[in-house]
Amino acid sequence: MKLISTLLSGITTAITALTLVTGLAMAQMAEVPRPNTKGDFITAKVQGNRGLYNNINWLVVDPQYLNCRNTPEGTVKAKLDSGAIMTALFSNNGKGDAIVLKNGQPWLKVESIHPYGSRLNSGVCYVRANLKYIAPINGDYLDMFKRK
């Protein structure tokens, strides 16, 4: 009887530990930056359990295309297709932000990687950091697809 009780106690402990570990792993899935009430992203960083993290991947959600400019509010350098994935470029070797303000409007510094080859990449340019045009992509989800 004592042996059965000990075994049941051990099994219960193991199941509880497994449940906690699984729950913790899921809870540690990265968040993404959230826009303010105007839809503007003020930062490309997100608070994690060990400090601030850079949100590197962004998606063009404009239904047609998105103008990517030489400088914030500058001339159009490239037009990014809806669905294009952009890489945010952070200042100060990643310690700074990828979003800069110009006349009160946030701009995200990016480089778009074109699926048909590097000759079609946008190069370094700026897009309006607003939910009407772009959306952050959770890097953890991209990593899950790479593993499968």
Task: Kindly summarize this structure in a few lines.
The longest helix has 26 residues, at about 1-25.
Overview of this protein structure:
Helices cover 24% and strands 32% of the residues. With 148 residues, the chain is of the alpha+beta class. It folds into two domains: 1-30; 32-147, SH3 type barrels (Roll). A hairpin with a 2-residue loop joins strand 7 and strand 8. The radius of gyration is 21 Å and the shape is globular. Residues 3-27 have low confidence and may be disordered.
Return the average pLDDT rounded to an integer.
Answer: 80
Count of individual helical segments: 2
Query: Strand percentage, roughly?
Result: 25-35%
CATH superfamily of the largest domain: SH3 Domains
The proportion of residues forming helix, as a percent range, comes to 10-25%
Work out the count of structural domains: 2
First-last Cα distance: 46 Å
Structural class, by secondary structure, is: alpha+beta
Largest sheet: 6 strands, antiparallel
Order of helices and strands: HEEEEEEEEEEH
- Low confidence ranges: 3-27
CATH class value of the largest domain: Mainly Beta
What is the overall shape? Answer: globular
CATH topology of the largest domain: SH3 type barrels
Identify the CATH architecture of the largest domain: Roll
Q: How much is the radius of gyration in Å?
A: 21 Å
The counted number of beta strands is: 10
